[in-house]
């Protein structure tokens, strides 16, 4: 399958497919003219890659996960790596929650400033 067809079927840009290939996530064969050709499973693989990215994994982590998915065997250290990723996600969630609370306080104080912040009327 050529790159344009994979992109269309997978719902991604050609640029995204090139990026996936550069990152070692999506293998492609090259024709003598240098055109990329993908296997029939490429569309499903792109879907999985997108799910892993949507889960917050970086391309280096996706590269670690894919072999286990396709072999059906969990690579040594993979579960620990994924648990570390989840812990980092939990930290980001906590940071964002704290930022939202601070923003809520700013909004509340802007709507109804406390007396010490009100300007005297002239």
Automatic annotation (TrEMBL):
Record field: transmembrane: none
Which UniProt keywords are present, listed alphabetically?
DNA-binding
KW DNA damage (keyword) present: no
Q: Where is the signal peptide?
A: none
Residues in HTH merR-type domain copies: 1-68
One short Pfam name that applies is: MerR_1
Would you say which domain of life the source belongs to? Bacteria
Q: What is this protein called?
A: MerR family transcriptional regulator
Source organism (scientific name): Streptomyces thermocarboxydus
């Amino acid at each position: 399958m050529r790159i344009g067809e994979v992109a269309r079927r997978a719902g991604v840009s050609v640029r995204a497919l090139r990026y996936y290939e550069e990152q070692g996530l999506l293998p492609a064969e090259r024709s003598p003219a240098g055109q990329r050709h993908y296997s029939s499973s490429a569309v499903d693989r792109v879907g999985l890659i997108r799910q892993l990215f949507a889960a917050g994994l970086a391309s280096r982590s996706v590269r670690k996960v894919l072999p286990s998915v396709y072999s059906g065997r969990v690579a040594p250290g993979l579960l620990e790596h994924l648990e570390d990723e989840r812990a980092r996600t939990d930290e980001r969630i906590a940071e964002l929650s704290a930022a939202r609370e601070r923003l809520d306080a700013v909004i509340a104080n802007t709507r109804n400033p406390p007396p010490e912040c009100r300007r005297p009327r002239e």
